[in-house]
Amino acid sequence: MALVGKTAVVTGAAMGIGRALAEILLENGAKVALLDINEAAAERPLQALEQHFGAEKTIFLKCDVESEEQIRAAFKKTVEIFGGIDILCNNAGVLNETSWEKTISINLMGVIRGTYVALEQMNQLSGGRGGVIINMASMAGIGPLLSCPSYTASKFGVVGFTRAMAAASEASGYGIRFNAVCPGFVQTDLITNIPVRLGQFSNLAAATHKLVDVMGTIAVSDVAAAALELLIDDTKNGEALLVLQSGATYMQFPTFNPTQNKPL
Ligand SMILES: NC(=O)C1=CN([C@@H]2O[C@H](COP(=O)(O)OP(=O)(O)OC[C@H]3O[C@@H](n4cnc5c(N)ncnc54)[C@H](O)[C@@H]3O)[C@@H](O)[C@H]2O)C=CC1
Ligand SMILES: CC/C=C\CC(=O)/C=C/C=C\C=C\C=C\[C@@H](O)[C@@H](O)C/C=C\CCC(=O)O
């Protein structure tokens, strides 16, 4: 799908990976609605994006992905201003093992809420234009991160939800592709103050820092570049793209033959 003239919604767009996603979408000619709970944090990045790409190409909408009402209002405003939605990047997420409910509500349920509200606008079966939805998972959605069990659960859920939605969409004719991005450690605020973020698992902070040292970190631009391939390539549906310092790799998952109930 060519991005020129398309409309994208990015959640958690005020900083980090979400801001990088917004930038690469704008660089490729899309209009972008930047959604975030943190309006103050979005102010300066938005000014910079407006100066570079033009104010007519971007809007910021305050939105808490824990609220279906706020998501629906933001999507409605986006359609009013830009005429429709072609792309959704469910990116907002937190790392907070002290409050596992919050982690699940934002990281997993926020992706599900955003997807289901977006279907009301994007699904070709209900008059939408179709398009593509990218869900920001993590390498911790491919393999468990011992110091972050609830975060890991949220990201495994994002990968599973994405792959199931991709299959449902293809079988039903939604005209929407669904793909997950699974980065390793990325240089953002989310991986600062790790011990505080680990809550009852803070005893595993040293092991986590060691993993960061061994695996290294990547830049937000590396994640955005990997996501771009999933946005543009119309053959990509149901993928989980692992993004590490060594590059991006499409994960292979076992397929089961229900009649034999064992991996093929
Ligand atoms: N930083 C990393 O190492 C990795 C991050 N990820 C994922 O990437 C996504 C983005 O994370 P980062 O850019 O690293 O973090 P970040 O902390 O830099 O940015 C997260 C953004 O989401 C926003 N946000 C938080 N809760 C929200 C809510 N309820 N509603 C709306 N917006 C909300 C924040 O205000 C912030 O602007 C997250 O889903 C995270 O789990 C995945 C793999 C690695
Ligand atoms: C402390 C920072 C936490 C959250 C940010 C985030 O999402 C970073 C995740 C980065 C790495 C996660 C690594 C998990 C590693 C273990 O699960 C190992 O079992 C390896 C996992 C998968 C290997 C993938 C493959 O098959 O090659």
Automatic annotation (TrEMBL):
<keyword id="KW-0644">Prostaglandin metabolism</keyword>
<keyword id="KW-0443">Lipid metabolism</keyword>
<dbReference type="GO" id="GO:0005737">
    <property type="term" value="C:cytoplasm"/>
</dbReference>
<dbReference type="GO" id="GO:0016404">
    <property type="term" value="F:15-hydroxyprostaglandin dehydrogenase (NAD+) activity"/>
</dbReference>
<dbReference type="GO" id="GO:0006693">
    <property type="term" value="P:prostaglandin metabolic process"/>
</dbReference>
<dbReference type="InterPro" id="IPR002347">
    <property type="entry name" value="SDR_fam"/>
</dbReference>
<keyword id="KW-0276">Fatty acid metabolism</keyword>
<dbReference type="InterPro" id="IPR036291">
    <property type="entry name" value="NAD(P)-bd_dom_sf"/>
</dbReference>
<dbReference type="GO" id="GO:0047034">
    <property type="term" value="F:15-hydroxyicosatetraenoate dehydrogenase activity"/>
</dbReference>
<protein>
    <recommendedName>
        <fullName>15-hydroxyprostaglandin dehydrogenase [NAD(+)]</fullName>
        <ecNumber>1.1.1.141</ecNumber>
        <ecNumber>1.1.1.232</ecNumber>
    </recommendedName>
</protein>
<comment type="similarity">
    <text>Belongs to the short-chain dehydrogenases/reductases (SDR) family.</text>
</comment>
<comment type="function">
    <text>Catalyzes the NAD-dependent dehydrogenation (oxidation) of a broad array of hydroxylated polyunsaturated fatty acids (mainly eicosanoids and docosanoids, including prostaglandins, lipoxins and resolvins), yielding their corresponding keto (oxo) metabolites. Decreases the levels of the pro-proliferative prostaglandins such as prostaglandin E2 (whose activity is increased in cancer because of an increase in the expression of cyclooxygenase 2) and generates oxo-fatty acid products that can profoundly influence cell function by abrogating pro-inflammatory cytokine expression.</text>
</comment>
<keyword id="KW-0560">Oxidoreductase</keyword>
<dbReference type="Pfam" id="PF00106">
    <property type="entry name" value="adh_short"/>
</dbReference>
<dbReference type="InterPro" id="IPR020904">
    <property type="entry name" value="Sc_DH/Rdtase_CS"/>
</dbReference>
